[in-house]
Amino acid sequence: MDKIWAANMMSSENLPDLSYHWMPFTANRQFKSNPRLLVEAEGMFYTSVEGNRILDGVAGLWCVNAGHGRKRIAQAIKDQADRMDYSPGFQMGHPGTFELAARLAQHLPRGIDRVFFTNSGSESVETALKIAIAYHRVRGDGGRFRLIGRERGYHGVNFGGISVGGMVANRKMFGSLLTGVDHIRHTHNLEKNAFSRGQPAHGAELAEDLERLVQLHDPSTVAAVIVEPVAGSAGVLIPPLGYLQKLREICDRHGILLIFDEVITGFGRLGKPFGSEYFDVKPDIITAAKGLTNGAAPMGAVFVKREIHDAFMHGPEGAIELFHGYTYSGHPLACAAALASLDVYESDGLFTRAAAMADYWEDALHSLKDAPHVIDVRNIGLIGAVELEPIAGQPTKRAFSAFLDAYENGVLVRTTGDTIAMSPPLIIEKQHIDQLVGTLGEVLKRLE
Ligand code: PXG
């Protein structure tokens, strides 16, 4: 049998050679000199290869919404692997994709019920952008090709996603990116909104920046606007009250599609199935991934308004309507994982559980207000962030030190810039929140 790594197996002769794997979004040399390897996971906790239990404060990477080790999901994947490993998705199908799309439609905002499958959030974004541009073209409005994103937006790492995205480090190394892209201003404003609970009061007017760009380029050239309802990777930026509504109004005024990137906010993170419902703003297209399979298999999806889908369903019946798709679109194992995840979310009430925990979460996080170095605490649903004053001349270092210290002390968080971000599994209990925030409070006291 192949070796399966388990707790307490770390020793110099046991450890694989770490040099071959070029790790994603990682300081490779630093990591390999002091690796953090996880080998087991159950409920709210990971176990490291040294045998330490680590409270998962980020649901893996914002994806394990129902907590780890869900037997129903594991069993569904095993059963599917035994029955049929793979089936082609082009001009062929298997029942799982159709069943899953219909199940998903029950949880989506009304009218957004056509589903295209991908394998990741990044692929969902590329797919959504392509559908948006092609939609205008199939309607005879092919002059609409421009895409508008937002500063500090994160839409994955492929060329479309980094082009509409607004994280400088993710863009600057990679050449000219897509043409025909522009960005509205981000909404982060500590002077006015620091220590807001939930949606900040100030900044709805920043949506007017969209009107400015639309007028600059002429509305007839703009295909779509893409934003995260809550920006995650750029440091948990919560939309000001009224802001998303204004974006919707401006898009409506000019016939522009609004895409919500719900890779993070989908599947219960805010206490509703999707962020669109939470904010009561209906986009035209929603991108998703992560929680779709509870992180147990790679899968993404694009949810499209029925009219958009239907606009493609003209022309000869034997013609392919959309020249787009992936070898693994709707992979049987991922479908099995997603169907079982929906079962778990539904039976455990996880689509709305974040709403029940949000007040306790908020109070606990805001107890860190006066801890050393803290310049902001923000929260929404089961998302939280603590922003630290950067060390002069060494941005990101202070938050990363906090991440390392927390990990050493049994708590996993994420950092981006000098912000500590948290997004625990939605099964979190009060005692876990106490442990997470308690450990973080101790860490902040120790920080340089
Ligand atoms: N859109 C959004 C809004 C995301 O948050 C992606 C697209 C890309 O998804 P994939 O599956 O291609 O990675 C994401 C991914 C973090 C973190 O800690 C966030 C993501 C990924 C890794 C880390 O902030 N979000």
Radius of gyration: 22 Å
Helix content, binned percent: 25-40%
Helix-strand makeup class? alpha/beta
Question: What is the level 1 CATH name of the largest domain?
Answer: Alpha Beta
Tell me the number of strands: 15
Largest sheet geometry: 7 strands, mixed
Under CATH, the topology of the largest domain is which? Aspartate Aminotransferase, domain 2
How many domains, in number, for the residues? 2
Structure description:
The longest helix is centred in the first third of the chain and has 18 residues, at 121-138. The model has no long low-confidence stretch (mean pLDDT 97). This protein folds into 2 domains: 28-66 and 350-446, Aspartate Aminotransferase, domain 1; 73-347, Type I PLP-dependent aspartate aminotransferase-like (Major domain) (Aspartate Aminotransferase, domain 2, 3-Layer(aba) Sandwich). Helices cover 36% and strands 16% of the residues. Strand 8, helix 11 and strand 9 (285-288) form a beta-alpha-beta unit. It has 448 residues and is α/β, with parallel strands linked by helices. It is built from 16 helices and 15 strands. Strands 4-10-9-8-7-5-6 form a 7-stranded mixed beta sheet, sandwiched between helices. Strands 1-2-3-13 form a 4-stranded mixed beta sheet. It has helices spanning 28-33, 59-62, 71-83, 95-105, 121-138, 159-164, 168-171, 190-193, 208-217, 243-254, 275-279, 306-311, 332-347, 350-366, 397-408, 430-446, and strands at 38-42, 45-48, 53-56, 112-118, 146-150, 181-184, 222-227, 257-261, 285-288, 300-305, 374-380, 383-388, 411-412, 414-416, 419-422. The structure holds 3-[O-phosphonopyridoxyl]--amino-benzoic acid (PXG). 3-[O-phosphonopyridoxyl]--amino-benzoic acid is lined by residues 61-62, 120-122, 125, 154-156, 228, 232-233, 261, 263-264, 289, 414, 416.
